[in-house]
């Protein structure tokens, strides 16, 4: 009886281990969702400068995070039911999630290749629509990052017309100033007010002279790197989880087998004891012969 109790305690410990593992996986899922939404929010700030494929990695990270939460609940259900099939299926689902996380890392890494070139093209193209959809994005970007244009303030010169409502700043800067983006004497700057400090283009000293491309490229590149590294770290944890779940399934199978063996042995012992007791208690039949009466 004590041995059976030990087996029951072992099974209970296995179930608790699965619950702890699934709690960790739920935290990992929430972490991946948080990273995905953070990167997506960063990308949204530069929505006008990014192509749709830049969002694939963050969207996939969010989806995988929710899948991990569902799979963790599935693992808890398998532990409660003490089902070897469900726990093994849980391990296979974790391996599937690992494949998705590796995909996230690959997409995030590939998005960094040729990022500066494509970002430059998209930013220059978006300047054509400054007065409509991308106007507020350009103003917010230039004001918050303290930059102007893609490569510099001169990017706005070709948009010098009434539709763009640009501010004119006379180029009176000394040509000996090494920070000047162009040599002295190339005419006035035509820029939005967001290209200047405090949104007031009063003179050349208030103009932001650096382009926005290097800063935006750094932010997006580092965000993609963060997403890729985060996905790889989660992948490592999920691989351990899949291995752990498989070992737990084997433990459950072994414990169940031991319990069944113990029950079979006790059943056989019970039958044997009953059989012996019946043999000992067996009574030989007595033949009764009536005595003959004398007449």
Q: What spatial order of strands do you see in the largest sheet?
A: 1-2
**What is the overall shape?**
rod-shaped
CA-CA gap between termini: 69 Å
Sheet with the most strands?
Answer: 2 strands, antiparallel
Order of helices and strands: HHHHHEEH
Rounded Rg: 38 Å
Mean of residue pLDDT values = 76
Structural class: mainly alpha
Spans of at least 5 consecutive residues with low confidence: 174-185
Q: How many helix segments? A: 6
In total, how many beta strands? Answer: 2
Give the percentage of residues in beta strands: under 5%
Assembly annotation: single chain
Q: Helix proportion of residues, in percent?
A: 55-70%
Describe the 3D structure.
It is a single chain. A two-stranded antiparallel sheet has the order 1-2. The chain has helices at 2-45, 56-81, 84-112, 115-126, 135-145, 213-280, and strands at 167-169, 189-191. It is built from six helices and two strands. The chain is mainly alpha-helical and 295 residues long. The chain crosses the membrane at residues 16-40, 60-80, 87-109, 224-249. Keywords: Membrane, Transmembrane, Transmembrane helix. It is a multi-pass membrane protein.
């Amino acid at each position: 009886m004590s041995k059976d109790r030990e087996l029951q305690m072992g099974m209970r410990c296995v179930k608790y281990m699965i619950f702890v593992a699934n709690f960790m996986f739920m935290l990992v899922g929430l972490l991946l969702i948080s990273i995905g939404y953070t990167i997506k929010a960063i990308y949204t700030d530069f929505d006008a400068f990014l192509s749709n494929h830049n969002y694939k990695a963050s969207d996939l990270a969010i989806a995988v995070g929710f899948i991990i939460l569902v799979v963790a609940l599935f693992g808890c259900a398998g532990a409660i039911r003490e089902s070897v099939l469900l726990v093994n299926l849980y391990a296979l689902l974790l391996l599937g999630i690992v494949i998705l996380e590796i995909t996230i890392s690959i997409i995030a890494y590939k998005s960094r290749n040729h990022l500066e070139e494509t970002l430059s093209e998209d930013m220059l193209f978006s300047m054509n629509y400054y007065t409509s959809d991308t106007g507020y994005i350009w103003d917010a970007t230039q004001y918050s990052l303290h930059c102007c244009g893609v490569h510099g303030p001169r990017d706005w010169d070709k948009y010098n017309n009434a539709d763009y409502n640009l501010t004119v700043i006379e180029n009176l800067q000394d040509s000996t100033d090494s920070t000047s983006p162009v040599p002295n004497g190339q005419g006035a700057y035509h820029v939005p007010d967001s290209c200047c400090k405090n949104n007031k283009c009063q003179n050349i000293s208030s103009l932001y002279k650096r382009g926005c491309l290097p800063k935006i490229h750094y932010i997006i590149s580092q965000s993609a790197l963060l997403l890729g590294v985060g996905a790889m770290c989660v992948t490592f944890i999920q691989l351990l989880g899949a291995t752990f779940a498989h070992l737990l399934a084997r433990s459950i199978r072994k414990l169940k087998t031991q319990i069944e063996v113990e029950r079979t042995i006790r059943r056989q012992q019970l039958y044997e004891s009953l059989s012996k007791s019946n043999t000992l208690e067996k009574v030989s039949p007595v033949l009764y012969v009536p005595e003959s009466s004398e007449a």
